[in-house]
Amino acid sequence: MSRFLPLGWLQLKHQKLRLLAAIIGIAFAVILITVQLEFSQALSVSAVRYHSAMDYELVMVSPKTTYLVSTKQFPRGRLYQATGFKGVSAVTPVYTQQGSWRNPADRTSARNIFVVGFNPSDRGFARLLTPDQHDLVKLPDRIIFDQRGRPEYGPVAALFESNGSYEVDINDRMPILAGLYSLGTSFGLDGGVITSDLNFLRAFPKRDKSAIDIGLIHLEPGADPVQLQREIVAAIPGDVRVLTREEFKAQEINHWSKTTPVGYMFTFGAIMGLVVGFIIVYQILFADVQDHTGEYATLKAMGYTHGYLRGVVLQQSLVLAVLGFIPGITISILVFGKAADATGLPLSMDARSAGFLFLLTLLMCAGSGILALRKLRSIDPAEVF
Fold first, then answer.
1. Tens-digit pLDDT profile for residues 46-72
2. d(CA 125, CA 56)
3. In CA terms, which of 139, 235, 256, 341 is 20 to 30 Å from 323?
4. Of the candidates 164, 173, 203, 215, the residue with the CA atom closest to the CA atom of residue 59
5. Helix, strand, coil % (nearest 5) of the chain?
6. Residues of the chain with pLDDT under 50
7. Cα–Cα distance between 263 and 40 in angstroms, integer?
8. Under 8 Å between Cβ of 8 and 319
9. In sequence order, what are the beta bridge partners of 113?
10. How many whole angstroms separate alpha carbon 212 and alpha carbon 134?
11. What is the pTM of this model?
12. DSSP of 253-296
C-alpha cells in the first residue's frame, strides 16, 4: 500500500516526532498570523461603526479632525451654507464628546463614554434609533444607551429590561435612560449614548451651541455626491472639509492603521508569524534533506532528475502546510469566539479569509521548501558512494 503514497509524505511520517514538532510549529505560526490579521480587520470594521450607521451622502468636518473620538469643532453656519446648493435636500448638525459615566449599580466607578447629540426632528440616525426613540429624546434629559458597550458600564441593559426607564449619571447630571440601541465597541470607543442636541448641551454646559463636530449632508435622489462635493468645497472657505461617505470612513481607518501603534503592532505581529513559520518549516525540511542525503544521491545515480527531487521536497512543504493549517485555523476560530465575547469587537472567520490564510500558509511553506532545495543541488552521487 505504501508504494502508492507520495515519497515526500513517506519521508515525513518516518520520523513522527519531527513531523509532530513541525505541525505544532506551523499551527502556532498560523494562529499568530490569523489572530493578528483578524484583529487588524476588526480594527478597520469597528472604527467606522458610527460612520456606517449614520445616514448621509456627504459629511462636513473640521480640517483638524482626524478621527471620531477627537473631533474638532467648526461653525454650525458653515453646514447650513450647504443647503444653498442644488441637490442638497437637508443637513443635520451633530455634536460629539466624551462624557463621564458612572456604573448605575454602584454609582462609584466613572468611565468615559461617547455622547452624540442631534436634533431628533432631523435625519441621520434612523438606522440606530426607532421613531419612538426619536420622540423620547425630545423630552428633557432623556438618553438612549448602546447595549453592546463594554460590561464595565454596568448592567445597564438588564436594569432597563427589568425595571424600564431609570436615572443614570453622566457628567454628574442625572438624565433618564429611555431606551437602548445596538452598535458596539471599537478600539477607540467602549460605549456610547445618543440624545437630542438640547440634552447634549445640558450635559456639556460649557459647549458653544453654535459650534458642531460633524455635519451630515443629505442629497436629493439622483444627485451626484462627488459633483456636489466639488461645488461646496469651491464655494465655502477652507475652514471646513467636505468628504464623501467612503472618504470619511477611510480617514478613520487610516488614523488607526497608519498613525497609531495599534495598526503597526498587528502588521508586525503578522509578519513575525510568517517569519516564525518560515524558519520552522525550513529547519524541518533542511534536516530531512540532510538526513536522507544518501537516498537522494542514490535516486540521482538511478537517473532521477533534480526536478523530481525538488518535487519531493515541495510535496513535503505542502503536506506540512495542510497539516499545520487545520489545527491552527481551528484554534484561531475558538480564540476569536472568546475574544469577541470579551471585547465586543467584530472578530469572525469567513470562507474568504480562511482561503486567503490557507494560501498564505502554502506560500510560506513552499518558500521554505525552495530555500531548503539548495542542499539538493550540492548532492553528488560520486561523493556519497
1. 899 999 999 999 999 999 999 999 899
2. 9
3. 341
4. 215
5. 55, 15, 25
6. 1-5
7. 7
8. yes
9. 99
10. 20
11. 0.80
12. HHHHHHSSHHHHHHHHHHHHHHHHHHHHHHHHHHHHHHHTHHHH
- Residue 97: name the closest of 189, 217, 175, 184 by CA: 189
Give dist(CA 277, CA 325) in Å, integer: 11
If you count DSSP H runs as helices and E runs as strands, how many of each does the chain have, helices first?
15, 12
For cell 478613520, name the residue: 252
Determine the Cα–Cα distance for residues 126 and 323; give it in Å rounded to an integer. 48
pLDDT of residue 2: 41
All three cell numbers of 217, joined, read 449632508
Provide the β-strand partners of residue 194.
Answer: 116, 144
Strands 169-170 and 214-219: unpaired
Q: Which three cell numbers stand for residue 68?
A: 471620531
Please answer whether residues 196 and 94 qualify as being in contact, where contact means their C-beta atoms are separated by less than 8 angstroms: no
Q: Which residues pair with 92 in a beta bridge?
A: 216
What does 175-243 look like in DSSP terms, one character per residue? -EEEEEE-----SS-S-EEEEEHHHHHHHSTTS-TTEESEEEEEE-TT--HHHHHHHHHHHS-TTSEEE
What is residue 379's predicted lDDT score, i.e. its pLDDT? 62
Whether the Cβ atoms of residue 36 and residue 270 lie closer than 8 Å to each other? yes
- Which cell numbers hold the place of 161? 429590561
| Other residues' Cβ atoms within 10 Å of the Cβ of residue 75 | 16
CA distance 196 to 144: 10
Q: Would you say 212 and 78 are in contact if contact means Cβ atoms under 8 Å apart? A: no
CA nearest to 114, candidates 190, 48, 54: 190
The rounded distance, in Å, linking the Cα atoms of 297 and 290 is 11
d(CA 294, CA 193): 72
Q: Are the beta carbons of 53 and 182 closer than 8 angstroms? A: no
Selection from 138, 136, 144 nearest residue 115 by Cα = 144
